[in-house]
Every structure is written in structure tokens, then in C-alpha cells.
Automatic annotation (TrEMBL):
One of its GO terms (cellular component) is mitochondrion. Pathway: Polyol metabolism; glycerol degradation via glycerol kinase pathway; sn-glycerol 3-phosphate from glycerol: step 1/1. Residues 10-264 form the Carbohydrate kinase FGGY N-terminal domain. Its EC number is 2.7.1.30. Pfam families: FGGY_C (PF02782), FGGY_N (PF00370). This is glycerol kinase. Gene3D superfamilies: 3.30.420.40. Residues 273-471 form the Carbohydrate kinase FGGY C-terminal domain. It comes from Pyrus ussuriensis x Pyrus communis.
Length: 524
């Protein structure tokens, strides 16, 4: 097949919690080649979740090579057409490695890992502001969720990390930092950076200055010299070094996965998106204003599209377990053989039959913030079958999103939300689970407002591509945020549920939530 001349292509590395993808987009933002690889999840103890950072690195290498082969086989001139690479990644996941050897000093501690509970409790007691001591500075409460606590655990418990810090050989980073360092040379001059969105999830960055906060570092005893430089989401960081399937191409976009999805969904001020993956993450763009939540949400970065560009902030509600509950049904219980099977089973019943499932496997994130919570399934009778359980699992994802959006509405107020000409607030959705049409209808029913699913549901990778393309002049901001283009082929789900029944179901859900508290110490 003859190659297409004068193509403009952008690559996107999408490094998630369970898999890595590499996607190549053309100038019209159409995917013309991709490959995905799953990697291993390690659970060394109850509540602990780890990744092998070297396996993640290899997954990127394989995905790059396979996607390039596919695009080239289809006649695309990747060698001359690829103008830039964007990167998006699972946030908060924490790694420390050796500057001299390039080897990780411990497995990456994943964002949902809760081993730092005792460190959190200790800090809450010692610090004058308790759990919210750093919120005014970094927007985040003290929680097992964030990188700073995971780093403290490594510094306190892993001898190799302690020695490397003392000798000046340690580098800290989230997964974006690890990948960029290796892609740009590793031990031979790799660039040690992170972007503002990933940095905003460490609990160490000042939200206003966008720099590491010296007071927080001093309070926690974290050495500044192991931290990466903070850059914007859209700028040329460096070029991919030799030893990779692609070489010499600039890395010019980097965002945490949820921020990339916001950009991929082109969320402007007052607009919100919900990404359904391993967890679920709802972000509302608050423009250049930092809104401090009083309803259990986080203040965070949305994106900063260039070194001199204005900073967009967001309110975020993070849900630890969404799609992971479906994986649990498949892998741990064997109720389903594939994730796609859950929709067919759930459709076999008209309701959950009074069953309510709360997937608080590692505690509850927003808006509850209870790390003492554990999963419950209530309302089970002899009538209950696996279809009821499957439907309850789908509803649990939607109830959790509803809880977060209710908090957002309270924090942002009427002026902070954008509505359509009918006065409706639209929730934009994306992520793998949104292929489930029943899930999307349940979401609209429980919200009582429309849900908009784009034609391309994998907006995370697209957002990273947009950021990279923007930095090298492939796209303009106007093109990225063009309203009519992004909604042209979207599917809109409108609520069908009776208001009285919606209220009763929500009351039952809150009853189920209350049953999850104070269960962390149950005997084995």
C-alpha cells in the first residue's frame, strides 16, 4: 500500500491503572493506529496495591511498536508525519528510583492503596489543622489517596529508598515523570519533570504558585531535591531518545488522566465530565477561580495549556471503585465471564429487587472520605439472583457519581455551572464503561438530568494528543474547544425515572452507605 504524503500525526501514550495504550491520531483527531497491553496488579496485603514500574515501561514500548506497525501497514507515513507525542497517566501512583542505575527502589504504590492509613491518622493528630491542615495551600485533605503519604511510607519503611535519598541518588515521581525520564534518556540525561496536573495530586504543590510548597515539604520532612521540575500541560519537554520505536519526536503534552479527559471533552468553565474507568472521576471546570469545597470535594488543577497560558482550576470528586467492581464480579466471584456480560445479565431484571451494593473495598473517597469503610451488599433475600447483583453493581457506580455531583452543585452554585438553552446541566461522560448503554440510562435516571456520551469515548488519550498538538501548532485552542464539533455525533441519555421513586432509591442508597462505616477492624 502506498504511503499517504504530507500527513500530520500526533501520538498519545495513555498509561492507566490496568493497561497502557498508544494511539496515533491524524489532523482531524481520528485514531489511525493503536495498541493496548494489560499489565499485572499486585496485592501483597489487604488494601495494598502495587505495579511493577519496569513492566509499565515495557508496556509502553510494545504499544508504541505495535501501533506504529498498524498505522504503517494501513499506508500512513508515520516516520515523517509524527509531529509530537502526548502523555497521560494514572495519577498519584508513586515511585522512587535510582538516578544512577535507573532501577525502581520499590514497586510503584498505586493511587488506591491504603497502607498509609496509620500515617494519615498520626498526621491528623499532630497537625493543628487536622485532616484539612494543607487544604488551603494544596486543595487536598490528608488521605491515603495522595502521593505525599505514599512517599512518606517509602521513606520510612524501605531501606533502599532511605539510602538513595541520603546519597543523593533518589528520584521521586508519579508515572508521568518515570516515563518521561526514561523516554528522554534515563540514566543518560533523562529529563526529570512532572506537569501541573499531576503535581497538583501529590499534596505537595501550592495551587496558586504552581510550585512545590516549601512549608508542606518542611512539615512532612520531604527533601525537595528528589522532586521533579513542574511544567505546564502543553509545551515541548524534550525529545524521545534512542532505544525506543520512535526517536527524535518531541514530547509536548502531559496531563494526569482525568485532566486529559477534561481537555478531550473540551470542558470549559462551568462544564463537567465523568470518566468511568477502574474508579470514576468527576471534574467541574471552575475557570481561573479556585473554589474551596465545603462538601467533601477536592480543589485541583483542570489544565494549563502553555507556560504563559491562564490556569484553569476544577472541583473534583474521586470514586475509588467503579469499573473495578465489575472486574471483581468477573475475576473474584466468577459471576460473569467478561465485563460486557454484566449489561445482558442486569437487563434480565427490571430492578435490583431491593439490593444495594456499596463497593467500599478500600474505603470511600468523595464526598465521604471514610477509610474505615468496607464494602457491603444489603437487602439480599432468597429471591435475589445474580442479575439483581449485577444491576446493583451498575447502580452503585451511578449513585456514587450522583453523590459527587450533588456536592458540586452545592459548592459551585448556579453561577458556577453552564446550562444549555433548556436550562439543563449536561454531564459529559467517557471511559470504557460508558459503552454500557444501561449504565448510562441508569446514570441519567438517578441524576434526573441528561448524560452526554461522545462518539469517541476514549477522550483521555485524545486530551493528551490535543495538548501535544497545541504545543507544536497542529491545533489551536479554538479548534479544540469548538462546541458544535464535539457534540455532533454524541448520544444523549435523558432521565425516565419517576421523581418519587428516584428519591426513595436515593434514601435507600444513603442507608446502605451508612452501613459501610467502621468496618475496617472486622476480624479475619
Amino acid at each position: 500500500m502506498s504511503k499517504k504524503p504530507d500527513e500530520v500525526l500526533i501520538g498519545s501514550i495513555d498509561q492507566g491503572t490496568t493497561s497502557t495504550r498508544f494511539i496515533i491520531y491524524d489532523r482531524s483527531a481520528r485514531a489511525i493506529g493503536s495498541h493496548q497491553v494489560e499489565f499485572t496488579q499486585f496485592y501483597p496485603e489487604a488494601g495494598w496495591v502495587e505495579h511493577d514500574a519496569m513492566e509499565i515501561l515495557e508496556s509502553v514500548r510494545v504499544c508504541m511498536a505495535k501501533a506504529l506497525d498498524k498505522a504503517t501497514a494501513d499506508g500512513h507515513n508515520v516516520d515523517s508525519g509524527l509531529k509530537a507525542i502526548g502523555l497521560t497517566n494514572q495519577r498519584e501512583t508513586t515511585l522512587v528510583w535510582s538516578k544512577s542505575t535507573g532501577c525502581p527502589l520499590y514497586n510503584a504504590i498505586v493511587w488506591m492503596d491504603v497502607r498509609t492509613s496509620s500515617i494519615c491518622r498520626k498526621l491528623e493528630k499532630e497537625l493543628s489543622g487536622g485532616r484539612t491542615h494543607f487544604v488551603e495551600t494544596c486543595g487536598l485533605p490528608i488521605s491515603t489517596y495522595f502521593s505525599a503519604l505514599k512517599l512518606l511510607w517509602l521513606l520510612e519503611n524501605v531501606d533502599n529508598v532511605k539510602k538513595a535519598v541520603q546519597s543523593g541518588d533518589a528520584l521521586f515521581g508519579t508515572i508521568d515523570t518515570w516515563l518521561i525520564w526514561n523516554l528522554t534518556g534515563g540514566v543518560k540525561g533523562g529529563i526529570h519533570v512532572t506537569d501541573v496536573s499531576n503535581a497538583s495530586r501529590t499534596m505537595l504543590m501550592n495551587l496558586k504558585t504552581l510550585e512545590w510548597d516549601s512549608t508542606i515539604l518542611k512539615t512532612l520532612g520531604i527533601p525537595a531535591e528528589i522532586l521533579p521540575k513542574i511544567v505546564s500541560n502543553s509545551e515541548v519537554i524534550g525529545k524521545i531518545n534512542t532505544g525506543w520505536p520512535i526517536t527524535g519526536v518531541p514530547i509536548s503534552g502531559c496531563l494526569g488522566d482525568q485532566h486529559a479527559a477534561m481537555l478531550g471533552q473540551a470542558c470549559r468553565r462551568g462544564e463537567a465530565k465523568s470518566t468511568y474507568g477502574t474508579g470514576a472521576f468527576i471534574l467541574l471546570n471552575t475557570g481561573e477561580e479556585i473554589i474551596q469545597s465545603t462538601h467533601g470535594l477536592l480543589s485541583t488543577l483542570a489544565f494549563k495549556l502553555g507556560p504563559k497560558a491562564p490556569t484553569n482550576y476544577a472541583l473534583e470528586g474521586s470514586i475509588a471503585i467503579a469499573g473495578a467492581a465489575v472486574q471483581w464480579l468477573r475475576d473474584s466471584l466468577g459471576i460473569i465471564k467478561s465485563a460486557s456480560e454484566i449489561e445482558d445479565l442486569a437487563l434480565q431484571v427490571e430492578s435490583t429487587g431491593g439490593v444495594y451494593f456499596v463497593p467500599a473495598f478500600n474505603g470511600l473517597f468523595a464526598p465521604w472520605w471514610r477509610d474505615d469503610a468496607r464494602g457491603v451488599c444489603i437487602g439480599i433475600t432468597r429471591f435475589t439472583n445474580k442479575s439483581h447483583i449485577c444491576r446493583a453493581v451498575l447502580e452503585s457506580m451511578c449513585f456514587q457519581v450522583k453523590d459527587v455531583l450533588d456536592s458540586m452543585h452545592k459548592d459551585a452554585g448556579e453561577k458556577g455551572e453552564a446550562k444549555n438553552e433548556k436550562g439543563e446541566f449536561l454531564l459529559r461522560v467517557d471511559g470504557g464503561a460508558t459503552v454500557n448503554t444501561l449504565l448510562m440510562q441508569i446514570q441519567a435516571d438517578l441524576l434526573g438530568s441528561p448524560v452526554v456520551r461522545p462518539a469517541d469515548i476514549e477522550t483521555t488519550a485524545l486530551g493528551a494528543a490535543y495538548a501535544a498538538g497545541l504545543a507544536v501548532g497542529v491545533w489551536s485552542e479554538k479548534e479544540i474547544f469548538a462546541c458544535e464539533e464535539r457534540t455532533k455525533n454524541s448520544t444523549i441519555f435523558r432521565p425516565k425515572l419517576d421523581e418519587e421513586l428516584r428519591k426513595k432509591k436515593l434514601d435507600s442508597w444513603f442507608k446502605a452507605i451508612s452501613r459501610t462505616f467502621d468496618l475496617a477492624d472486622l476480624s479475619l
